[in-house]
Amino acid sequence: MRVRILFSKSGVLRFIGHLDVQRALERAARRAGLPLKYSQGFSPRAKINLACALPLGFTSQAEVADLWLEHPLPPEEVHDALKRSMPPGLDLLALALVDDTFPSLQSCVRAAVYRITFIEFVPDLEQRVQRIIDAKEITRQKGGKIYDLKPLIVKINPLPQENELGQKLELVLSATEGATGRPDEVLDEMGIALQNAQIHRVALLFESGSQPSKKK
Amino acid sequence: MEIERTLERVLLNVQKPGRYIGGELNQIKKDWDSVAIHVALVFPDIYDIGMSNLGLAILYDILNRRSDVAAERAYAPWSDMEGVMRTAGIPLYTLESKKPLNAFDIVGFSLPYETLYTNVLNMLDLGGIPLFTAQRDETHPLIIAGGHATYNPEPMADFIDAFVIGEGEEVIEEIITCYQTWKSARASRSELLQALAGIWGVYVPCLYRVEYHTDGAVASIQATTPSAPLPVLKRIVPRLPKPVTRLIVPNIDTIHNRIAIEIMRGCTRGCRFCHAGMITRPVRERSVEEIITAVDEALAWTGFEEVGLLSLSSSDYTHILELVERISTRYQGKNLNISLPSLRIESFSIELMERLKSSRRSGFTLAPEAATERMRNLINKPLPTDQLLETTRQIFQHGWHNLKLYFMIGHPSETIEDVRAIIDLCQTIRREGAKIIGSRAQVTAGVSTFVPKPHTPFQWVPCDRLEHIEAKLAILKHGLRGKGLKLNWNSPENTLLEAWLSRGDRRMAQVIYHAWNRGAKFDAWKEHFRFDLWMEAFQVASLSPDFYTHRERPLDEVFPWEHINASVRKKFLAEDYLWSLRGQTRIDCRQQCFACGILPTFTELRRQNPGEYWQCPEVREKRIPVEEIASMGPVGR
Hints:
The complex is a heterodimer.
Chain A: E1 2-9, H1 18-31, E2 48-50, E3 59-68, H2 75-85, E4 90-98, H3 105-108, E5 109-118, H4 125-134, E6 139-142, E7 145-148, E8 153-159, E9 168-176, E10 179-180, H5 183-189, E11 197-206
Parallel strand pairs in A: 3-11
Antiparallel strand pairs in A: 1-3, 1-4, 2-3, 5-9, 5-11, 6-7, 8-9, 9-10
Chain B: H1 2-10, E1 37-43, H2 47-50, H3 54-65, E2 69-75, H4 79-88, E3 106-110, H5 117-126, E4 142-146, E5 162-164, H6 168-185, H7 189-197, E6 202-203, E7 208-212, E8 218-223, E9 232-233, E10 259-262, E11 264-265, H8 275-279, E12 284-285, H9 288-302, E13 306-310, H10 320-330, E14 337-339, H11 347-356, E15 364-369, H12 373-378, H13 385-397, E16 402-409, H14 416-437, E17 442-449, H15 466-479, E18 485-489, H16 492-503, H17 508-517, H18 531-540, H19 545-549, E19 564-565, H20 570-581, H21 598-601, H22 603-608, H23 626-631
Parallel strand pairs in B: 1-2, 1-3, 3-4, 4-5, 9-19, 10-13, 13-14, 15-16, 16-17, 17-18
Antiparallel strand pairs in B: 5-6, 7-8, 11-12
Helix pairs in contact in B: 3-6, 5-17, 6-7, 13-14, 14-15, 17-18
């Protein structure tokens, strides 16, 4: 049985990496007494797939993962047991059954929506955004690789704010296999220090038909 | 709050920020102002290592069960984080409340091995606490330490206010009570230290005076106050308390990321080099029932994928077969990996491993320690070479590909032939393995250097010279090459540091201080260890390193740890040392009691805990004839 879960990552857990989250989900499922499916071989791994790695330091309300169980169980039961067993900082928001023949999660993700909140006032935020919008090409270098950031930016726009503090930015970045944009790269291009930004993933956008159901 | 806010800004600039955040499942965070006593439990190395320390997990559990105490954790920041902390002005803090170390009432360090000592100084410094006990007053936390290394507390005596010698489960509560009484009486620090010295197992170094002969050897150790016991007897618990099952589940990977359940404490084998085997006597075992219940509970609390059934010698646990059978049946198909360390070299061990066989099959590890029967007899780990070869053959036949063999070099009686024999043995085993499973057969030799540890029969023996060790290692490196053979070794310089620190006297504190002052820290880490700083520190302190490690001690030498009674008698150790020189071995003391000193010391405890729970002979109720009582006179015996 394959189940798809939607969960959040918050608080200090934003400082743990992708593999650590995978391990945390495995342990949560084990505490819940769920019959996780394991791979064969010398070092069996629990079959858990995360849709899209969340960079270190970001919080999220839109983490999606597929888990495989050895035998079918009522989804409500799986949901309740897992919800109770999640560690502090990871919360289960929804769970749905997924047909085992569906393509992998990673291959269905199209884009990620981020909300960036600035801790200190950023002067000329509008202009900085406009420069990104107007750019034809944004050449960046990451890990020794030169790439164009521009086509990875689907959308960028400041969000309405009540006062000078709490400036916010909405950012939609491509998140397909091999073409994933990073919010920290965009910020750097805008001349904004990463330390001045709280980055929160609001949603993952999937190819239509593969989106996880919000109902459990 | 301040620390927390600053942290958030800097954590993305360091490797593995998950080390510094806390917030794990099963962490206990109490409302700071709701508890009277705050204790920081500190492991002087990084989180990844410290989180696997069972001793601190036990104390964390015991202390946090009390409503009047909050126990929190602190680990050494890795050098990148230390730099960030010093720049940003973040003091060393605990993971739970993010409070600086100097806000605690008691700071307790775990000292399982000696190469952590400079980290203790560094952590005190980072925590805003004066390094030397003499510099601290009533406004500073009480600094305590325990763990195997503290059976010779002397090198750290100037830095630690009070040591716990032995097992901490009961004494920690007595220390809390004592501290609380003192705190409410608003008495002086010296009164606190005096009171602590009255607790069985607590050693307060500043209440003792050490005199030296002109050659530097210890002349005498005296208590300077009647409240300080001499000798200080190690603390033991008569029965092992229920294992801790609410273990903290780390959010990042750690060295032993698993449930640890101690199945037995102590060892009856009597290997002469083994510090743990001498200081953890008597042997006490947990019941199979208790262990299985604990595993069940711990799995429900944690969800870990691995359980380590810990002891110094798993094969010697009385009900090992029953335990292994029941555990393997119970958790079959649950993808639970069960590790059973320290197995004897015999086919029965393979049977045990075979029953535990999960689908994970890493290597099989054996510790013959020496490659010749002569050396094995000398260290009292007797084993016929035929049996060793037969066991390794069977290991390959049962499907293991990787065999790890642990050896020790550097005993003064060792010859070059004994060292060469390691190569021959590994090659033979690898050849035999290849006959059975072909070229996949892999033999890895792990070679460490012998340290003559305090409280062992080898405490009189000198260390091998550095150049000899290097020559021996060169032979091994040359011989253990080629397909299917691998050699791992410990740095001989690092072992030498371990030897100085484990054998040193009080004057070593100056060496430790100067080494730290020059930048020594994380001495157990290859990338940080700086031998040159230690040599400089010895010079500054005007002490000779060789004096501590390269001198055969006369049998009547007063050791720096003479006042610490590990309850195995010096006379017994000396006799065992002389036996070793004749190649004479002792059998497992479960078969015959050699009167090491445990029973006379703990007669009453043994009498109160009869049966097979302790692996020492029974002590019967004393039956004193009526006429003898009459002759005792009015005051009795």
